[in-house]
Amino acid sequence: MTAIVPSAGLVLPPGGGRTMAAAAQHVTFKVTGAHSRAASTFEVVVPPGFDVGAHTHTHSEELFYVIEGELEVLAFEPLVRTPDRWREWESASGERAVRAGPGTLLFVPPGCPHAFANPGGAPARVLFQAAPPPAHERYFEELMDLLAADGDQIDHAAVAALRLRYDVHQLTPLRYEPPCG
Question: What values do phi and psi take at 45, rounded to 5?
Answer without folding.
Answer: -100, 120
